[in-house]
Amino acid sequence: MPSKNEPLRSRTGCEDPRPVARQRLNCQSAALATMALVAATAFASGAARAQDATWLPTPSSGNFNIGANWNSATVPTGTAFFGTSNTTTLAFSANTAIGGWTFNAGAPAYTFTNNQAVTFNGAGIIGSPAITNIITGFLNFTGNSTAGSAAITANGPLNFNLNSTAGNAIITNNFDMNFNNHSTAGGATITNNGTLFFNDNSTAGNATIHNNDFMHFVDNSTAGNAAITNTSGALTDFSSSTGPAGDDKLTAGSIAGAGLFQLGANELTVGGNNLSTEVSGVISGIGGSLVKVGTGTLNWTRASGPSEAGS
């Protein structure tokens, strides 16, 4: 497991040779800036000429990007509606900017496989489709969009930008997942098997996060009222964020499990969700502190070492 001052590596192999503290990866920042520009352009152009359409009951294929598969004979850019159809397994053949997907009452289960760049720039997802983002695909939520109740398997980059939210989605992240700007994890259930970054002023909200790898809070981000559980060998790193107010104070609804919780010099307040939890891992941070609030109990079963935070 990397120490505080070791360079972080993304799943793309990029590396920042500078100390980690309060800095993001150069390559990650450049990629996010590019994606933000694409999303902003898609949002501006889409708002001017957004068109709604409904997926046909008997389309010629499962290709989302073929106009003949829609009742308007044009691929929608506003809201895509889905109802009864004999084709409910869809894929993409082009980069796609869309306001949202709405699954009508009585619609069957739809599944989507994405190997392109798909960006939600309007309402987002209303319903509970299954989405698999393969390694060459980008899945982006921007504006005020939501992931709704989707089941998302992210084997490629997954990004929440601006004021978007993960909603109540069930997300399995196997690659790189980022919350940027003022986005939130909402009430999502997230299993992290890759790298998960909360950047800028983002928050983990009220999410339930099972962290099996690396999760980092940087800039002014915070874990909010989220329930965070580490497995053995996992790292949850708060040390690179100065908190929402820039005063080195962050919150998390609760922390639990093994691995390492790295506080750095921050004060982390936990217990706001009133859950009772047990931490068997290390809570570490030179100059950091852990504050317990709420009605639940926090049982820390590991003896504190010289570099571990007090409580």
Write the layout of secondary structure elements.
Blueprint: H1 26-49, E1 53-54, E2 79-82, E3 89-91, E4 96-103, E5 111-114, E6 117-126, E7 130-133, E8 138-141, E9 151-154, E10 158-160, E11 170-173, E12 176-179, E13 189-192, E14 195-198, E15 208-211, E16 214-219, E17 227-230, E18 235-241, E19 249-252, E20 254-257, E21 260-262, E22 267-270, E23 277-279, E24 282-284, E25 289-292, E26 298-300
Parallel strand pairs: 1-2, 2-4, 3-5, 4-6, 5-7, 6-8, 7-9, 8-10, 9-11, 10-12, 11-13, 12-14, 13-15, 14-16, 15-17, 16-18, 17-20, 18-21, 19-22, 21-24, 22-25, 23-26
Question: Strand order of the main beta sheet, please?
Answer: 1-2-4-6-8-10-12-14-16-18-21-24
Beta strand %: 35-45%
How far apart are the first and last residues' alpha carbons, in Å?
24 Å
Q: Number of DSSP strands?
A: 26
The largest sheet, given as strand count, sense and whether it forms a barrel, is: 12 strands, parallel
Cα radius of gyration in angstroms:
20 Å
Order of helices and strands: HEEEEEEEEEEEEEEEEEEEEEEEEEE
Mean pLDDT: 87
Q: Write down the overall geometry.
A: elongated
Helix coverage percent: under 10%
Treating each run of at least 4 consecutive H or I residues as one helix, how many helices?
A: 1
Tell me the structural class.
Answer: mainly beta
Poorly predicted regions are 1-47, 303-308
